[in-house]
From TrEMBL, chains A, B:
Binding site for L-aspartate: 174, 220, 457, 498
Pfam families in alphabetical order: GAD, tRNA-synt_2, tRNA_anti-codon
Binding, ATP: 220-222, 229, 491, 543-546
Name of the molecule in the record: Aspartate--tRNA(Asp/Asn) ligase
Species, as recorded: Pandoraea terrae
Designated gene of the protein: aspS
BP terms from Gene Ontology: aspartyl-tRNA aminoacylation
NCBIfam families: aspS_bact, PRK00476.1
C-alpha cells in the first residue's frame, strides 16, 4: 500500500470521482462556514482539500493542523463549485473531499511566513530548509537540474564522456588562492582543492579520450563578491582535433540547445563574434552587455593638440585614452543626475566626468552647453559631433585617463545609464538575450606590481600561430586563441585552444618568468605528457551557477544553490566552518597560530 | 576544413573508395616488402594504413614516425587483400591507402609498451597519461560513464532531481576521519570535506524536494586498503513518502536497468532478501558471496555438553558460537591443504581448525577420519552428520570461539575454498551475478573499547517501529530499517529509512551516549529541521567505483578511476600532496608541527 497515489499539484479533472491519497504540507488552513479548507502543497504545487464536519474524527484532526504540518489525506476528487475555480493552479478545477486525515509529522510555528518576500538573507540562510520550501527556490533548483541534464544530453549525443578528475590535487599557486587540505599520511604535505580541472582534462586529451566533460565543483579562496562562492560549479569540456571555430560552434549550439529546452528561449542562430580589441574600444569591457544601446567614441587622436591638459595629457601619453559616450536624449538629464554620475565614475578611478549637452548640432559650438567646450578647438569639436553622430537633445560624456580607468569608468557609466529608468524609457536598453563571443584576447598583461607578464587566461592557452615568435620578442603583442562567451554583460563561459607542443609551453613559461626548475616542479607532469604525441586540443568551461542565475532572473547566485555560503564564507545552517578537536589537528601535523583555540 | 572525417576505429567497408582524413596515434609501424603499414589508433579502435613508396614525400614522413606519434593521414579506403582481413577489428575488412601524412606531434620513446600486461602499479600511476591510452583503461572509463549516464536516465524518468550539496561542510567527527580544510576568513575554524551528503539529502527531503540524487565525491581519511580511495564516488539517493519495500524495489530496478544497459547482463527478476541474522548464521558475513555454494551449519546447541573444551566452552559462553562448514568432495584435500587452511583462519583470530573427513556416512563414527572425533559423544556426531547433510567423501571444518571469530574465520574459509581451483572444479562456485538484499540490521553494536553503543549504519537510521522502546531499555535488541545491496560478496549499496521525528532522533542520540549539548552542537540543524513537519523519508547510496570494478572485472578500483591515489594516498602523476609556501600557511592561521618544512 503506497502512501500516496499522486502528487498534490498534479490532481486534475482527469481523476474526477476517484479516491486519491495525497501527502504534503499545509500551506494554509481556512475555516469557512463550518468547513475547513486546506491548501495542501508538495513539490508539484497546491491542491484544495475540503474537510466537512460530517466525519467527526477527520474533522477533529483537521482542526488541529497548522501551517507546515506534514499530512496524508485520503479523499474524493470532485469539481469545484462553479465560480470558485483557480486558473493559476493545475489542480484549480477540482478539490478533494477529505475522508481521512493523518498527521505524519507536526510542525512548530515557522520563524517566518513562506510567502514573505522581504526576508533578510541571514534569515533565509539560517532557516534554509524552510526557505527551500518556497516555490521560487523549488523552481530555481529544478531549473538548475534541467539545465545540467540538457547539457549532459547534448554532450552525450556529441560523443563527450564525463570523466571524474580528482578533488584532492596539487597546489600550484598561480592565479587565485587555493583551499588547502593537510595530509595525515604525508606529514607536512598538503592537497589543494581544484580551482578547475584544467590540467587533468588536458591530460585526458593526451590519453586519447577525445571528448571530455564534467559538471564539477571548483574552489577559489577569494574574498567574496555578490556573484562568487568559495565552491562553484563548472561545466568543463575539452576536445581534440578541432579548430577554434569548430569548438566555438559546438558549444554555441550547446548553449542554444539548453536555453531552448530549459526555458524555451531561442537564442540567435549565430552569435556575434567580437575581437577583444573592439570590445574594449566600443564598450570598455571584455564582457559587454549588448542590451545597452550605447557605444564609446574614440577621441584619443583628436585630443592630442587641444589646449586642455585633462584631455591632451592622456591623449599624448603611452597607455592613455580619451573616449566619449553619447547618450541620445540625455539633454534632459538634470544637473543632479550628472553630479550623481560624476560621483559614480570616481569609484572606477576617474577624476571627473566632462560632458557636453547638444542643444542644436547645426549651430556647432554655439549649440552646445558644457563646462569644457571653451577648452576645445573647433576641429576637435567638429570631430566629436561627427564621430559620435550627435543629435539635438543628446548629452556626450567624456573620460580621459589611463586606458584602464577610461574603460572601467565609462563602461560602468554606460551600464548604469542603460539600466536606469531614464535609459529604459529612452530606448537605450533592449530587453532580451544578447549572447556574443569575445575572441582574440592578448596572451599576457603586464603586472605593474610584480613587474612581469602574467597570463590573461591561463598559461596553457595557445598563442596564435603567427604570434609564437612574440613570446620571446614582444609578449605584449602576442594574441591568444582564447574566447569568452558573454551573455547580457556576464561572462558565462571561457576557453581556449591549448598549447599541445612542449617547446611552445616551455616558451610561455619563460615569458611568464617561470624558471625552468620551477616550471618542472609545478608542471613537470604536463611538460612530460606533451612529449608523448599530445594531440591538438582545446575546450571551454561554463559557469553553471551564473547561467542558472540569469535564466531564473535571480538576484544572486545564492538563490540557485541549495546550501550556499555567505559573503563571509560561512554556512549559517550547519555553522561551518567550526573549531575542531585538538586531536584532529595533531593527526594532521598542524597547529593553530593563535595561542587560544576558539571556543565552539 | 575539419582535421578528420571519421574516427580511425570506425572506418568500414561503408566508406570503400572514399577519401578519408584520420587523426590518431601510431600503435605500430611495420615495414614489409618495401611498403610501410601503420596501425593507427584512436579511442574507437585501430585502422590499418598502407604507405606505398610511389609518393616519396609521404613515404619519407612515414619512415620517420614512431610509436605514439600523433599523426593525421589522408587516404583512400580500399578492401584488404583477400585473406588478410582482421575479424577482431571493426575496420578489419578495409585499409587506408595513404596519400598524405602529417606528423601533428612527435613522441619520445614511451617508458613502456602499451600492450605490456605486467607493469607495476607504480609505473602505471607515474605514467598514468600513457597508461590511460591502453584499450582496457579506455574501456573501463567509458563503461564508468555509461553506467553513470544510465543511472541518471533511470532516476530522471523516476522523477529524481540531481541537487548539488556542499563540499565545504562541517566536521562532525563520528565514524571515519574527516579531511579538514582550514578557513582563511574565519581564523582557527575548519571545513570538512563530506564523508557523504547524508544530512544534506535529508534536509532536502524536509524541504520537500521529494526525490533527490547526486553522483558525487565523498571523502574519508582512512588507512587505505585495496578497495578504498581517499575520495570515492557515490550514487546518493533519497526519497520521501515511500516504505522500505518501495525504496528497495525502486533501486533494485535501477541496478537491474544499469546492468542490462551497460553490460547486457540480466540480473534476476527479484533479488533474494536475507535477514542480517540469517546472513551471519549461514555465511558468517553481512555481505555473502552467493556464488559460493557452501553454508555454515549451526552446532552451538549440540556442543554444550561434549567433553571437549575447545567446543564446549564457546558453546556455553555468552557470545560464543560453534559452527561447521561442510565441503562436498573435500575428502580429497591433502594434509597440506588442510594445514594451509589452518594457517589461513588464524589471520581471522581462530586458534585452530578442527575437521572431520567423512569416508562412509553409513558407518557412523567408524566411517570418519578426524583428530577430534574421539572427543565428541555419539549424539553430537549424529547431529553433525545429519545437520550438515554429510555425504561420503566430504570434509567438515569446525570453528568454535567468540561468534565474531567464528564468523570471520569460517566465512573467510568458505570464500577461500569456494574460489579455489578445488572449489571451482567441484561445483562449489557458480560463476555469474548473485545480488541480494541484506535487511533487518541491528541498530547498534557495542564498542568494547569505548564501552558504549555505536550505530551500525549511522545515527539517522530509523529503528523498527515496534523496537523504539528498546532504544531506552535494551539497545542491543533494537533492529533498524536498514538494508544493504550485496553483489558477489561486495556491499555495493547501503541505505535505510531515516528517523523523521525529532523525539526519536533525540532518543537515538541518547542511546549513543551523545549528550544533549553535544547533540545540539553537532546536529542542532537536523533536530531543528525535523520539527518543521519533516516527511517520512529514506534512501540509499551506491559505491560507483565498486560497481564499475565488478562490471569491468578489474583487479582494483584504481583501474576504474582516471587519476587515483596510491595506498599511501599520493598522486604519483602530479606529485600531490606536496609542501606549500609558508605564506599560504600563514594566511590560513596554521603552522606545521615539525620544526622543519619538508623540502619540495
Amino acid at each position: 500500500m503506497s502512501m500516496r497515489t499522486s502528487y498534490c499539484g498534479l490532481v486534475t479533472e482527469q481523476q474526477l470521482s476517484q479516491t486519491v491519497k495525497l501527502c504534503g504540507w499545509v500551506q494554509r488552513r481556512r475555516d469557512h462556514g463550518g468547513v475547513i479548507f486546506i491548501d495542501l502543497r508538495d513539490r508539484e504545487g497546491l491542491v484544495q482539500v475540503v474537510c466537512d464536519p460530517d466525519r467527526p474524527d477527520m474533522f477533529k484532526a483537521a482542526e488541529n493542523v497548522r501551517n507546515e504540518f506534514c499530512v496524508q489525506i485520503t479523499g474524493l476528487v470532485r469539481a469545484r463549485p462553479a465560480g470558485t475555480e483557480n486558473t493559476n493552479l493545475t489542480s484549480g478545477k477540482i478539490e478533494v473531499l477529505c475522508h481521512e486525515l493523518v498527521v505524519l509529522n507536526a510542525s512548530v510555528t515557522p520563524p517566518f511566513q513562506l510567502d514573505d518576500e522581504n526576508l533578510s538573507e541571514t534569515t533565509r540562510l539560517t532557516h534554509r530548509v524552510l526557505d527551500l520550501r518556497r516555490p521560487q527556490m523549488q523552481y530555481n533548483l529544478r531549473l538548475r537540474y534541467k539545465v545540467a541534464m540538457e547539457v549532459r544530453k547534448y554532450l552525450d549525443s556529441a560523443g563527450f564522456i564525463d570523466i571524474e578528475t580528482p578533488m584532492l590535487t596539487k597546489s600550484t599557486p598561480e592565479g587565485a588562492r587555493d583551499y588547502l587540505v593537510p595530509s595525515r599520511v604525508n606529514a607536512g604535505m598538503f592537497f589543494a582543492l581544484p580551482q578547475s580541472p584544467q590540467l587533468f582534462k588536458q591530460l585526458l586529451m593526451v590519453s586519447g579520450f577525445d571528448r571530455y566533460y564534467q559538471i564539477t565543483k571548483c574552489f577559489r579562496d577569494e574574498d567574496l563578491r555578490a556573484d562568487r562562492q568559495p565552491e562553484f560549479t563548472q561545466i568543463d569540456c575539452e576536445t581534440s582535433f578541432l579548430s577554434e571555430q569548430e569548438i566555438r560552434d559546438l558549444f554555441e549550439n550547446m548553449i542554444r540547445h539548453v536555453f531552448k529546452e530549459a526555458i524555451d528561449v531561442s537564442l540567435e542562430a549565430q552569435f556575434p563574434v567580437m575581437q577583444h580589441i573592439d570590445a574594449m574600444r566600443l564598450y570598455g569591457s571584455d564582457k559587454p552587455d549588448l542590451r545597452v544601446k550605447l557605444e564609446f567614441t574614440e577621441l584619443t587622436d583628436v585630443m592630442r593638440d587641444v589646449d586642455f591638459k585633462v584631455f591632451s595629457t592622456p591623449a599624448t601619453t603611452e597607455g592613455g585614452r580619451v573616449a566619449a559616450l553619447r547618450v541620445p536624449g540625455g539633454g534632459e538629464l538634470s544637473r543632479g543626475d550628472i553630479d550623481g554620475y560624476t560621483e559614480f565614475v570616481k569609484i572606477y578611478g576617474a577624476k571627473g566626468l566632462a560632458w557636453i549637452k547638444v542643444n542644436e548640432v547645426a549651430k556647432g559650438r554655439d549649440g552646445l552647453q558644457s563646462p569644457i567646450v571653451k577648452n576645445l578647438h573647433d576641429a576637435s569639436i567638429a570631430a566629436v559631433l561627427e564621430r559620435t553622430g550627435a543629435k539635438d537633445g543628446d548629452i556626450i560624456f567624456f573620460a580621459a585617463d589611463k586606458a584602464k580607468v577610461v574603460n572601467d569608468a565609462l563602461g560602468a557609466l554606460r551600464l548604469k545609464i542603460g539600466h536606469s529608468t531614464f535609459g529604459k524609457s529612452h530606448g537605450l536598453f533592449e530587453a532580451g538575450w544578447r549572447p556574443l563571443w569575445v575572441v582574440d584576447f592578448p596572451m599576457f598583461e603586464y603586472d605593474e606590481d610584480d613587474a612581469r607578464w602574467v597570463a590573461c587566461h591561463h598559461p596553457f592557452t595557445s598563442p596564435k600561430d603567427e604570434h609564437i615568435d612574440y613570446l620571446e620578442t614582444d609578449p605584449g603583442k602576442c594574441m591568444a586563441k582564447a574566447y569568452d562567451m558573454v551573455l547580457n554583460g556576464w561572462e558565462i563561459g571561457g576557453g581556449s585552444v591549448r598549447i599541445f607542443q612542449e617547446a611552445v609551453q616551455s616558451k610561455v613559461f619563460r615569458a611568464l618568468n617561470l624558471g625552468e626548475e620551477e616550471a618542472r616542479a609545478k608542471f613537470g607532469f604536463l611538460l612530460d605528457a606533451l612529449q608523448y604525441g599530445a594531440p591538438p586540443h582545446g575546450g571551454i568551461a561554463f559557469g553553471l551557477d551564473r547561467i542558472i542565475t540569469m535564466m531564473a532572473g535571480a538576484d544572486s547566485i545564492r538563490d540557485v544553490i541549495a546550501f550556499p555560503k555567505t559573503q563571509r564564507a560561512q554556512d549559517l545552517l550547519t555553522q561551518a566552518p567550526s573549531p575542531v578537536d585538538e586531536r584532529q589537528l595533531r593527526e594532521l601535523h598542524i597547529r593553530l597560530r593563535q595561542p587560544e583555540v576558539p571556543k565552539a
